[in-house]
Amino acid sequence: xLTSAIPSLDDLAEQHPGWLDAAVxxxxxxxxxxxxxAALATRRCRGGGPPFIKDGKYVRYLRxxxxxxxxxxxxxxxxxxx
Length: 82
Known about the structure:
The chain is α+β, with helices and mostly antiparallel strands. The protein has helices spanning 9-15, 26-33, 37-46, 63-72, and strands at residues 23-24, 53-55, 58-62. The longest helix has 10 residues, at 37-46. The radius of gyration is 14 Å and the shape is flat.
């Protein structure tokens, strides 16, 4: 049985300075969130996705924003809405 807890963003920032605030592409964002690149693109257009940075044709995400976005969506049962 796995008993380790998910580290907090503060713990990650302390243990790996700069890692959370690095900008990543949509491939890494997809890996971190579990969403496909297409799902991320859809959410960029329609809203509801994580904050992103748009620079010309390039899209980047800050790891901190991705993880914060995921943490904000945690629920304890299906009747909780987000």
